[in-house]
Structures are given as structure tokens and as C-alpha cells.
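ingest -> validate -> predict -> emit
validate: passed (alphabet ok, no gaps, 388 aa)
predict: started
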Amino acid sequence: MILITSVLVMLLCLFLLYNNFSKNKNSIYLCGSLIFMCITSILHHFTVIAPNRFWIAIFVGHSIPLAFLTGPFLFLYTRNTLRISIRFNKWDYLHFLPFTITLISIFPYFFREFDFKLRIAQLLIEDPNYILNVNLSWLYPSKINILVRPVFLLAYALWGLLLSYRFYKKRRDFPLKKEDTIAVKWLMVINSVVVLMCIGYTNLTIYFYSLPNIASREQINSSLLSYILTMLFALIPIMILVFPEILYGMHKFKTSSKSKIVIQKDNHESLVSTSALILDLIKKEENLINPDFNITDICKTLNITSQDVNYCFTTILNVKFITLKKELRVDLAKKELINGKLVSHSMEGIWTKCGFSSKTNFFVAFKEVTGMTPLEFSKEINKNRTTD
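emit:
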């Protein structure tokens, strides 16, 4: 069951990368975390559930450093998804310190002859507790990795769960877009499942090595905790399928299955020039900051019909009037914040000056366009100035 689930999850990860990487680079963190988790699960399968001398020699030792990447990759995926960012700063390298130390410690073992690794594999089949005595690394005893790996992943999963909860709590006052709501639910579910798996696996490991020799495998494989862990692990591919937006990408669910048929007007060429005039009119600051500015004002100013204006937006400019107006107003607000106007003006002064009718409309529009709230955007600007 674990072996089949591991292979299925890795295949789903490859499919996820194929669909999402071009538009969401953070998917590589999710896929990396799940694939490394699967490698550890495959190791568990061949050492405990169905001992195999060849595959134990392949996985034992070689896969240990990869287990220390599962937690950091899961955390980076969670954090960047919530921030709608792909940023990787210099402090993030610290997350990979345990992986680096473990890799350095185990590195000489990679070059040992394969017959030596097969002998260790045979001894592990005969006595699982042999892993507590054999030392495959040179910086510290190998048995430390046995308990440190799940505890390390547990800490990162709890961290990701905390970030998700804080994000949800902080934005209760502002309505989230559908895809944001789905993303937060997905992050809370995947981190919660990993937390439960880590707690269960830590207890199972302690129980496993407290039992004598071969009997330990039989008792572990038939234990209730082992069944629970198997079910939790099987939840991962199910969750990926339950959240198809994660697997296929959000935007694919927004596109219509029917092609839009565009019929050009006889005066299409002249309306192309009119579209440029409409753009210039909207970009004028006195119109942009006017919360009541609408299509009727465009018709009156340019002396054209509302049908022609709608044609310009839908066919030539290929954007909705309300969307364009919102994006231009957010750009204006960004300039105000970049220029430090928040110091001399309140946030209310900024959204009023930029033509928004209310604080809620301003915050929602700003988040939709930039992926951040105005306060987060302002903090990011200040952080970059400090760094520079």
C-alpha cells in the first residue's frame, strides 16, 4: 500500500509540475517535499514491511540527507503561497543547514563498495536493531537521524500550519478571492496531515526499536498505529485530487470551454483610434481619482455611443472598464506608497486620493492586483530600502 501510494504521489507531482510550473514556480517546493517524503516511505517499505536486501542497500544511507529537505520545501511552499511570491532570500539558506551537515557526514558512505552495503542490508534484515549500532556517517552517530528526521519535519509542518492560521485570521475582515480561499484550505489540510504523520511515525519508530529482532516487524506491521499512518499517507494523493485547482492550476478553471466569437464592426478601424483616446481619458488623474467616473462620462466627453465604448473594451482593448480603472487606481496608490506618502497621510487619505469609494474596496482591489495588502506593500518597500 505504501509503495503504491508513493509511486502514485510521485507521478501526480510530475503532472502537477507539468501543469503549474510555468505560472507558479512554488509548485517545485510542494513537489520536492512530497517526493522526498515518498522516498522515505519507500525506505520504510523495504526495511520494515517487505524487507529486500537490494533495495535496502540502495536506500539506506543514500536517502538520509533528502529527508531533511522535506520540511524546508514544505515550509517555503506554504510561506510563498500565502505571500503570493517566489522570493528566496539569503536567510532561507539556513533551512538547508541540516541537509548540508547530514550530506557531509554521510558523504564517504556513498563511495563504499556495493558489497559492503549489501552486507549491512542483510544484517538489517536479520536484526532491525542493528541500525542503532552501525555508524554510516563520521560527524555523529547515524542513529540520531532516526528520530531527528520526523521531529524536524514536524517542526516545519507546525510552522506552516501556524502561518496558514495567521493568514486566515488576519484576513477575516477582508473577503478572499475563491482561489485564495482554496489555497489556504489546502495549505492547512496538507500541513495538518503531515503533523499527524510525524507524530505517529515518531511513536512508531520508538516502538519499533524497543522490540526484539524479527518479531518487531510483525508487531509493527499489524499494529493499529501502522494502519493509521498508512491511511494518512494515502490521504495525500486523495487530497491532491480533491483540490484539482492545485493539480491543474487555478486559471484553467476560469477559462470558458467555448471559444468566443468576435464580430468586427464596420467602423472597427476608426474605433481603434477611439480606444487610444479612451485610454488617455481614463489615465487622466482628475478622472482616475473621481469615484463616480463611469462609461457615461466617456460617452459624453468623446461624443460616442455606449455600444461603441463597450466594443472598444471587449474587442480592441480586451479588458473590462472596471478592471482597467481598478488597476490604474492601484498603480496610483502604489506610487503614493513608494513615495512615502503614508508618512504624511493616513491610509484613508491615500485611498480617498486614488478614487476608491471605501477602505474595503481599496484593500480588496490592492490585494487582487498586487497580491499584498497596502500595509504589506508598504512594509516590503521599507524593507527593501533598509536592505539597499
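Residues 178-208 form the longest helix (31 residues).
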